[in-house]
Amino acid sequence: MAGSSRKTPTIRDIARVSGVSATTVSFVLNDTAGQTIPVGTRDRVRSAAQELGYPITLARALREGTTRTVVVATGVLPRGTALDSFLDGLDIELSRRDHSIAVLRATGDALARTIDAISPRAVIDLGAIYAGAESDGLDGGWIDGLASHTLTQVGHLVNLGHSCVAFVRPAETGGISAMIGLRERHLQESARALDIAAPATIAMPEDPDGGAGALNAAISRGVTGIAGFDDDSAARVLRAARRLGIRVPHDLSVVGFDDAGWGQHTAPALTTVRIEAVDYGRRAARGILGITDPDAPAPHSWVVERGSSSTAPQSTT
To answer: Which of 130, 133, 270, 297 has fewest C-beta within 10 Å?
Structure first.
């Protein structure tokens, strides 16, 4: 069928139709706090999104279904503090107003069939948002989103004196390659903002012997700080460092991302970034229900300092 090959519209398409920048479109559709965007501009962006059939935004998702249920489609997004706390905040705010949420991992046609069966009040397709983030040109949220949380991670290393850092990601990307690419881009932009060298990327496999060579090569090039894609990636670095006889944090500082909780039990205990997204979930719920709250707190992140990060080692050259 001709309709099945129709290209999905992007953030840039909405920007072109509405006559604003892609960043402004991102702010409007993500309901980013702290932005003084005129009501007329917001309406124009949302109208353009609806006209183009943009499928993955909160604005596009608003619709009065036959149930008081909000569907959250997470796709292949990794579970972690950020996602879980977002869902908690969404559930808290919706429950107060006699609504409920249904969290679905399904994608594509399976997701569409389930949505049709549920007939929800709204759909938040988080999986699609991040799957299309790179091509859509999303800024990633430098105010209170993923980009700002990456800056928190890299900033911690820079504050400790590390000027040569590397980004470590899992070698097995599965369905999260878009998310990995987005985090990698944010890391590069954070490094420029903090005036340090562009970080190299290291792919660490599950195999205990697989990543030691790449890590050793990075350290020989002067890398003293590691920013993990997530806590699991950071833990792989801890394991490889032990095999190589590299002392963490004396020779190498390692910082995870999106605190999984178990990092306090590693040796050394894993420093990580905790992302508290309860407020973002609550804000999203209010947006779905048409409730504005300009004083709502913004989501934030902070470093949970444990034992795997410290000041950069003194250069011997």
So the answer is: 297
Mean pLDDT throughout 242-269? 95
Render the chain in DSSP notation, one character per residue.
-GGGGPPPP-HHHHHHHHTS-HHHHHHHHTT-TT----HHHHHHHHHHHHHHT--SSHHHH----SSSEEEEE-TTPPPSHHHHHHHHHHHHHHHHTT-EEEEE---HHHHHHHHHHH--SEEEEHHHHHHTHHHHT----TTTSHHHHHHHHHHHHHHTT--SEEEEEES--TT-HHHHHHHHHHHHHHHHHTT-PPPEEEEE-SSTTTSHHHHHHHHHTT--EEEESSHHHHHHHHHHHHHHT--TTTT-EEE-SS--SGGGGSSSPPBEEEEE-HHHHHHHHHHHTT---TTPPPPEEEEE--SS--SPPPP--
d(CA 106, CA 99): 21
pLDDT at 307 over 80: yes
Question: Within a 13 Å sphere around the CA of 208, how many CA atoms are in the beta-carbon half?
Answer: 4
Q: State pLDDT tens for residues 54-78.
A: 654 343 344 445 678 888 988 877 7
- Mean pLDDT of the region 160-177: 90
pLDDT at 95: 93
